Amino acid sequence: MNIIPGGAVAKPFITYSNELNMRISPELYHKMLVIAGIDQHGEELEEVLGVKLQETNLFKTQKETRKILHDICVAKVVESLPLRDTDSLLDKLIGEFLEVTYFNPTFTCNHSQIMSPLAKWHLSKVGLSELLELFVMKKEIYNANTELNHPIWQWRLFKEQAKVKATGDDGTMFIDENFCTALEYGMLPTAGWDTDNEQVTMFLTDSKNIQEVLLFPAIKLEDIKENIATADALESTTAGTSV
Which intervals hold domain Aminoacyl-tRNA synthetase class II (D/K/N) (predicted)? Predict the structure, then answer.
C-alpha cells in the first residue's frame, strides 16, 4: 500500500481506511533501486481505416490530431469515449482496427509518445518512444520499454500527467517528487517489462477470470459467513432427520 499509486498508467485501487492506494506496479521503486546501485505509418493506417490522412502533419498539433481522430471514430461508428483527448482516441482506434488482427505473435514497436508519455523517447525518430508490446491471439501478453532516466524531463511529464488528471482521466499518474529527486542522483540505462504469471496462465488456459488461475484466490468475508451458515443449516437438517 502506498500514498502515491505508482507504476502503470492505470486507475489505482483506493482503500477506505487511511486513504492508501493499492499499487498496480512498484515500477518507480524498482527504478529507485537501480539508481542506488513513429515513423508515421500513414499508408498502413489509411488502408486499415479506409480514411485519407494528412501526410506529415498528423501528429504535429494536438488540436488538429484530435479533430482527425475524432472524425475517424465518428465515420467508423467507434464507441464514444468519456475523454476525447488525442491518446485516448488513438488508443481506441488501434484497439478497434489493429489489435483485433494480431492472431500470430506480433510485436508492436515504437509507439507514439502521446500514448506512452512516461517511456523514454526514441533516440532517432522524433515523436516516438522506445516501447513495444507483444500480442498473441488478439491478447496483449506483455509490454516493455526503455526507462526514462532524465530527471528534468520526468518532472515535466509528471506535471503534464497531473494536468490531464485534472480533466478527469483517472488513468494518469500522480507527481512523485521522491522519484524525481532520486533520478537526480543518476540512473543507469534501464529497461523494464510488465507481465505476470497469472496473466500468462490465463492466456494459456483460455481462462476468463483471474480467480480461475490463482492458487489462493481472495474470498470476501461475506462469502465465508454464508458458506458457514449453509454448512450449519445442512448439519442441523442432517441431525434432525437421522434415525
Answer: 85-218
Contacts of 165 (CB under 8 A, 6+ apart): 172, 173, 174
Q: What is the C-alpha separation between 219 and 198, in angstroms, rounded?
A: 17
**Are 134 and 241 in the same domain?**
no
* 233 in the same domain as 114: no
The label of the residue with cell 490522412 reads 53
* Euclidean distance between CA atoms 208 and 112, whole angstroms: 30
Look up the pTM and report it: 0.55
In a domain, 72, yes or no: yes
**Helix, strand or coil for residue 162?**
helix
Q: Of 176, 195, 214, which closes a domain?
A: 195
pLDDT in tens, 22-38: 555 556 666 776 677 63
Domain total of the chain: 2
Q: Which three cell numbers stand for residue 21?
A: 492506494
pLDDT of amino acid 81: 56
CA distance 129 to 151: 17
Is residue 143 classed as helix, strand or coil in its secondary structure?
A: strand
CA atoms within 13 A on the CB side of 224: 5
Count the residues in the chain. 243
Give the structural domain span for 203: 197-243
C-alpha distances in Å from residue 86, one per residue of 63, 73, 113: 8, 12, 11
Confirm whether 183 is domain-assigned. Answer: yes
Residue 90 lies in a domain: yes
